[in-house]
Input
Amino acid sequence: MRKASFKYDDRSRLASRSEGVSLQPDGSLRPIVRPWNANHGLNTNLEIFDGGRRYFNYRAAQANVDASEASETSQNFVSSSARSIVSFRGKLRKVK
Output
C-alpha cells in the first residue's frame, strides 16, 4: 500500500486589504483602496520509495508467524507427552 497524504491548513489562509492615500502632482490627496487579497496553502506527500521497509516488515511478520506456529507445536508435543507419561504410570499401578 502506497502512502499518500493530503493536508489543507486553514490557518495558512491570510486575507488582507490595503488602504492608503496618494499625493497627486497638483498637491491633492487621493485615496487608494485595493481589493482584498487572499493566499491559500496546499501540501501533498506521496511516498514512492521506502527503502524496502514494507518488504522487511512483511518478512518480520512471516518470521513471527513461523515462531508462533513452532511454539504451538512444541506446546502440543509437551502436553501430549505429559499425558502419555501419566497414562503409562496409571497402567503400571494397575499391573502391580
About this structure: The chain is about 45% helix and 25% strand. The radius of gyration is 39 Å.
